[in-house]
User: Fold these one by one.
Assistant:
Number 1:
Amino acid sequence: MIATTSTIDELIRNQNPFAGHIVVRPQQIWGKSYPDVSSINAHASNAVFDAVEKIRNGKRETVGITITAEKGLGKSHIISRIRHRLQAEDNTLFIYMSKYDNLNQIKYQFQQTVASSLRAFGNQKVMQWQEIAAALINDAKKCNYTPQQYISSIYPTWLNKYSTRTIDSLTEAVLKIKTDVNNPYIIRAILWTLSTAHAHYATYWLSGLEVTQTQADILGLPNPKNEDREAEALSNVRQILDITSHYRVPVICFDELDITDISDTGFTAAQIIANLTKDLYNSLKQGVLLLAMYPEIWNDQIRALPQAEAVVDRLASEQSDRQPVALKYLNSDDIVALVKHWLKDFYQEHNQNPPHPLYPFDESKLRELGKGKPTVRSVLKWCAENFVNPDLIKDNLNQLDPNTTGRCVSHTIHPVKPYFDNEIDNVEASIDTLMEDEITIGSALWLAFVSLIGKTIEGITIEEIEEVPNQDYIDFKIVGNRKKVKIGVDVLQQASGNTIQAALNKLIDYRKFHLTRGCLVRSKKISPNAKLAQKYLQQLLQKLGGEWVLLQAQDIKPLLAIYFVWYNSESYELTEEQIFDFFNKKQLAINNPLIREILSDPSGQEPTNLTDDELPMRIPQTVSSADSIELNL
């Protein structure tokens, strides 16, 4: 039955399915995606699906594909489509990289990306790491158990009966059939992912990060040395991908390559990733390498590389003319299909049956939009700004002109709010991962303090937020009270005693870094076995008037959300002034407990409610009797 228009119009006044959703973020690629019309730019996604099929059938080993498109034309929409299509299958692995925080250590960052991507669930509703671990054991032991069976009953039984000898035996069995593996610890770490109690620490180690010595001893894994991590990273990634490619075709995507950062060697992010892709193409046993970028980056940066032809041959290996796959602008049929699909999901979610599938829009007006060169983003933005009762919709075709800012129909909603609300949902969905991301948390805190310049909080008038050069630990310095107060802030979530020791050693060096106070921001305990780190900590808290502030998810969530809005402000077509205005009106920073605690007088004490990041010394004894099988040690 068709709902009354009054009921639907009331819904429209209170809900806007387009607002804040004009840009695909990593959370939509990994989680619930925006509505997708598979016919739009199908040639681009089909190129990837065809490449995967050729590799499966043994017709190709490695394929390189580059997608080019203007801003807002739908590059990330295509990648999201590819991810969700492949997730429904059981013979691919998906790896996605869109952040390039340190171009000078891109191989190490890529290893972290691979490890993080494989933590995402595959089609068996377990981590992709766990799918590979189960496949390795089944291959070595000639059995056919699912990852869920290993996780829920078989592994607990084995670990209870044989303790860590379980992993010793399995590693030895797998190495007999994987004779080309140079680093047996990678196999060992992958096998540990099937143990619920140890999976987090195993994937942490696989990302190239240090675990505590206690954790390393239990897992039987050596900690990497910081000075070797960039040199070893690519070798580790190659081995991981070669191991996984026996069972799944890796599809590796590089997105968001338009950042303006330059490496110490003078190369852009796109150029560095292009060279990394070339190395992967040459060394991987099999896989699809996908890059997405603007046409001008391809023409001005990729083709300007030394030995550019060798790079181009690998980045566009399937195109006879060695040109990228170009996305097309939307036509009138595309626009109608796109809007209809978004509205269908919206009305179904709210159990409404509209007068027609495009309500409240008029099909002729939507088709009129297709006469220009509309992008996915510009169409969704137009819909967001015109999602009102049909009687109120005016002809706003000029809003698709990228040089206009557009008119917001509702004057009561702050322009930042829809994007902030969307980012809050994204942060909620990925908070466990974000709580480990020191760089992003540090950046969110930095932005919050920048928004407070000129304000007085906890007796400190904030004057400047400064970088601290020539070191890798202190995230920024808060300068206030006519430069009498200089607080160095370090977000430190890593587990390793060596890393904590190095960070605290910087934080207590007030003279070198011109500090009056050091502030550690951390949610986890520091192991009492890390003797030197404990010494530095006591020096910070007891002798130097420093502080340890507890990092809690509920405090950092809104700051992360507004940081992501700021970070994507160009795509969202928001100004920095609008974002800081929202900051102030919503009092996101000035009333945030974490911000106030950083500025308040130090207590000289460790926080309470810290989490314990150590593994239990004994294997848990609670075991399911179901599906028990002998390991045959």
Note: The two ends are 66 Å apart (CA to CA).
Number 2:
Amino acid sequence: MTDALDAALAQRDDLDQYGSAKRMLFALQLSLDLEDIHSVASTALTDGPDDKSCDLVYIDRDSRSMVLAQGYEASKVNQSQAPLTKATSLHQAVNWLFGSHSENDVPQRLRSAWRELHEALAEDAIDFVDIWFVHNLPENHQIAEELDAVAKAAYGIVAARYNVDGMSVVGTEVGRETLSDRYEGSRTPILVGDEFSIPVSGAFTESGENWSALCASIPASWLRSQFAEHKERLFSANIRGYLGSTRSQSNINNGIQATARMQPGRFWAYNNGITALVHSFDYSGGDSVKITGIAIVNGAQTTGALGSTDSQKMEEVKLLARFIKCDDSATVQDIIRYNNRQNPTQASDFRSNDRVQSRLVREFDSLGVVGYNGGRRGGAEDVIRRPGENQLAATVAAQALASFHGRPDVAYHEKGQIWEQDAIYSTVFPERVSARHILFVYSLLRALEQSKTGLSSRSGAPQTQRDQDLAKWFGMRGSTFLAVTAIGASIESVLNVPIPDRYSLEFAKNLTIPKAVEAWLPVTKALLALAPNQLSTPLSSTGGLRNRAAVDSAINTFTAVVSATSQVNEPIYSTFAELVKA
């Protein structure tokens, strides 16, 4: 399996630009089902001098979770384990990131991450903290024990300052085995391929289009024994669902365990049971059913809770199980999506069939742009495949649109609200929005991210004061979205024509995404020179981009300076204007 993982990583040359963080970003994208890892990387990566062992800090308010990661890439992979000292260094990361009482106490590189984390903790916006040690060597019990100690220390620090009711903090070693299992699970939903005979008192079958199922009451002791043996591999069809089952569920898990211990006869009535994909099933009457292969897509909480319950009455506990056989990959993905309660249908899925999104899908198809799916997620194989040069993710396109049209706060802090809230959705995706306009604003965001990545790649080399200031500004979270807003507000000065409706802006010719990014780069280079002085206050103020007064003030000042200096940059602006249809 590790050979397949190595091949998949080698094919992801789009991640080479991140150097030693490549594996860590691949693991993050694979584990959390992230469509566009590059937009995430532009914010989440903190790796560099004086990072205090915080290589990556990913905070997602939509899923109420965060990942703190430390990475290690061994040059010789014949070693038996990763250095224990690298795992131990995560204590330092936790102390700096969680324990520091002021952003002024942490290194410059971590201040923006510190601010975002502590604002989220203060607002009770995080339920699940996962602390990763990602490496390319075999996993080891000593490292696992150390990571458990790191997680307990982190929980203690957070509990001393914030509400931790319902919060889970875990430490995870993402070595070769774990990452290989997650990768294989993304390609083949069922990793546990054993044959099982399960005692039952009866069963019945059902079938529909492309699927068939067997339903039965099964003993909890059988499920408990499978969890003890196979652990995370039982959830290979939906690893994010399994990871999500541990967050904000401590009281629910306690309830499951308490019912199993004290009211075993009521467990079946209180619990929804499990749903699992199988290769095959057989029931010919009698007192047992036979299945081959199992991947639980709904019931991770139940399985994990029963797996950690020590009850003398476990033999009395029964639960409902649905075993589904399906050979159609598209139907399998839908079964996973709609059955998994811990990973509910994303907000964007609810909009994927409305008329605006349906039209945009057709328009992007006619432009030769791939990947725009109207917000509906594809399968895991779509996530881990190397993105094409002319590929565009709908979720990131929505963030670019929101930013360009004045809502960087929504784009960065509440991206799920774009799809969930009718009022926000209708302003971001009005009836008149076109695929060409989305390409226009999306390529602007990409150009800014490319500028940030270029600066980061030169961080070890001597830099001018301008580059140092810009790198410091880019290090503040939400900076690229604020820049999109600022440039959008200044677009009349750039094009030197009145723009009554910014949704009408598009490139005059059908440009590929790389060519569109290339067209923006001279403009963004000129305008980014203003960013450190004009666009820093909102990013460092309390509330960040949600501080509308600070954002509006900064944007007004930025646009005034752009207007005043437009003659200086006229050659750059006029060249760009020739490419734009206003």
Note: The first strand starts at residue 56 and ends at 60.
